[in-house]
Amino acid sequence: MSTVVTPPASAGIRALYAGNARAVVARSLQATRSSNWAIVVSGFFEPVFYLLAMGWGLGSFIGDVTLSTGKEVPYAAFIAPGLLAVSAMNGAIYDSTWNVFFKMRFGRLYDAMLATSIGPLDVALGEIVYALLRGGVYAVGFLTVMQVLGLNLAWTAALAIPAVLLVAFGFASVGMAITSFMKTFQQMDWINFVMLPMFLFSATFYPLSVYAEPIQWLIKAFPLWHAVELVRGLTTGALSVAMLGHVAYFLVMIAVGVTFTTTRLRALFLS
């Protein structure tokens, strides 16, 4: 009579994660230094230009804006945290979608990586950590610009940096999971089709109250709205218990995104 030996649970974990995600991050940093630095720099200046054009140009005609907590802030201080959240989203989405798509479908880099001791969870975490590093650079730089312009209205603005990293983590993990299903450049255009409405209608440039109530509930489902509200509350000092809900939203995004990404990479390259 034969006996079936069940492998320990740790064997399954080792098949997914080898503790070498830093090698994936190091490779991405090297690639940035050699060829992609101009793209990284341009990603920082885009929200700065929006802030100067909309915040100071259009803001001179609008005046103060009333937040959901009843606090009034200048229009530039209203849109600046929204643009900071958008910057985190854009940086994370670029690195976890177009960048990953090229490596996966054309560069075949993941085939080579997963042929070594690196596991699919190492690849997923490595790519996401690189996106977080880029998002962190954007956050510190843009927050510095806001400080110079006097748009940080409370000491809690310092907490916007970890908040932005949380936002970038959420978008990067979900973005990479979605990209794993994409097969052509035409399919990748769907990502921009989703991002543009979020950018325009997630209370980035005007309060949510301008919309009809059914539209408001739709917008509240957008991850960018949660990001904007979280960062805006920190930079303006308009704190509320609802901010915990925004944090929970991104924690769920991260858990779902990392799980799906790891599963997909394993199915694509190790099955």
TrEMBL record:
GO terms for cellular component: ATP-binding cassette (ABC) transporter complex. It is found in: Cell membrane; Membrane. InterPro entries: ABC2_TM, ABC2_TM_bact-type, ABC_2_transport, Nod_factor_ABC_transporter. One of its GO terms (molecular function) is ABC-type transporter activity. Residues 38-268 form the ABC transmembrane type-2 domain. It comes from the Bacteria. Its main location: membrane. Keywords: Antibiotic resistance, Cell membrane, Membrane, Transmembrane, Transmembrane helix, Transport. Pfam families: ABC2_membrane (PF01061). It is a multi-pass membrane protein. The chain crosses the membrane at residues 37-63, 75-93, 153-178, 190-208, 238-260. GO terms for biological process: response to antibiotic. Belongs to the ABC-2 integral membrane protein family. This is Transport permease protein. It comes from Cellulomonas gelida.
